[in-house]
Write a structure and sequence with these properties.
The complex is a heterodimer of chains A (about 150) and B (about 220). Chain A has about 150 residues and is mostly helical. Helix content of chain A is about 70%, strand content about 0%. Chain A is elongated, with a radius of gyration of 18 Å. The two termini of chain A are about 25 Å apart. With about 220 residues, chain B is an alpha+beta fold. Chain B is about 55% helix and about 10% strand. Classes of the chains: A mainly alpha (about 150), B alpha+beta (about 220).
């Protein structure tokens, strides 16, 4: 029991702090993305396509899982968050290829209702919704991989 | 410190979402009001079926899908408004056939219109919707036996419904729906003002407010 009451070395405290900040930033990115996607569908009333839903399945749990890992800080949260971010990234990548027309549309798994390639918004002239998802998942994946490397050292 | 940072961020996010939503709705309403003045034809096309007095100053525009359950449930509210404000309200039907196969139902409606039975057929399709829609799909073969009830010549309906003029009407209405941001049905506009939030009570209030504004005495 005594072991747990020992003060950790000073260097490791600062490592915890910077790791904590990174997880916190991941949580921020996930939360902004989740609220953004809800804004598109419930405020602007864009119907989400099937691929969007698959990406949300990976995104929404991150908000809760990452927040849970912050208090008290648990490095193992990376273990649970990383697969979600990786799968979300793959789906977002596929969605962007489809949207750009690189993957032929006949392969798309969309229902008749909402097309995955319908253009809704182009922020600043180039940022489409699939692109925003891609940026968000890329940032999440990048930070989570960095965290995993640090933990392994 | 960390908890404060977390709680503060969460609060900022939620408040930001809420402010963004109300700002967007206001902006959208203002933009549609402008559109109603500048290009009224986006709301009412010459081909659109209308009901009520020519002189009415309050236009209720309904983007509807004959296969949409909420459209059927809401049809009584516009009837109530027409009865409550006789001569002051005009009702306009626009098509937004979003359900699979719903454009066929619209074609039948337009063909019925050629026989002078538009409103009867619309009422019939709404009332018997459960017999000709299943899992949000239109079963067109279930519609035919219903039509004689309102005195329609079914063979003539079948012959007329593929008229390219009907196709043009549907395409125009869908284009206008997109322009006006109608993504769900029914989509209501009262003198260009969108129904926001959606509901029977807000619809009644919006119509009443617009009648008061147009007929102050």
């Amino acid at each position: 029991m005594r072991y747990f009451h020992r003060d950790p070395p000073a260097s490791s405290t600062s490592a915890i702090d910077s790791d904590w900040i990174l997880v916190f930033v991941c949580w921020l990115i996930a939360s902004v993305s989740a609220l953004g996607s809800l804004f598109f569908s419930y405020v602007m009333e864009f119907a989400p396509c099937v691929l969007c839903w698959y990406q949300r399945i990976c995104l929404f749990p991150l908000v809760i899982v990452l927040a849970r890992g912050l208090f008290p800080f648990d490095r193992h949260v990376v273990k649970y968050a990383l697969p979600l971010a990786a799968i979300g990234w793959l789906l977002a990548a596929y969605h962007n290829l489809l949207y750009a027309g690189i993957v032929p549309a006949s392969l798309q798994p969309c229902s008749q209702g909402v097309s995955c390639t319908e253009e809704y918004v182009e922020l600043l002239g180039f940022l489409s919704i699939p692109m925003l998802a891609m940026l968000s998942f890329t940032a999440l994946l990048g930070i989570l991989i960095t965290l995993r490397r640090r933990t392994r050292q | 410190m960390k908890r404060a940072l977390f709680a503060g961020s969460a609060l900022v996010l939620v408040v930001g979402f809420w402010l963004g939503a109300s700002y967007y709705k206001e902006w959208r309403t203002a933009e549609l009001g402008f559109l109603a003045q500048e290009s009224a034809s986006t709301f009412v096309r010459p081909h659109s079926p209308t009901l009520g007095s020519e002189d009415a100053r309050v236009y209720i525009v309904k983007f509807t899908d004959p296969a949409c359950e909420t459209c059927a449930a809401f049809s009584k509210y516009t009837k109530e408004a027409m009865d409550a404000f006789p001569g002051q309200v005009r009702f306009v039907v626009r098509y937004a056939p979003f359900h699979a196969g719903a454009d066929d139902a619209v074609r039948i409606l337009e063909a019925a219109r050629l026989q002078g039975k538009f409103w009867e057929t619309l009422e019939l399709l709404y009332r018997r919707q459960d017999t000709w829609t299943r899992h949000h799909r239109v079963l067109i073969d279930e519609i035919w036996p219903l039509l004689p009830e309102v005195g329609l010549d079914v063979e003539r309906v079948k012959a007329d419904m593929m008229d390219p003029r009907i196709t043009a009407i549907i395409e125009q209405d869908l284009a206008d729906a997109k322009e006006l941001g109608v993504r769900r049905t029914p989509g209501y506009f009262v003198n260009g003002k969108p129904l926001e939030p959606f509901g029977a009570r807000p619809l009644g209030a919006l119509i009443k407010a617009e009648v008061r504004a147009q007929y102050p005495d």
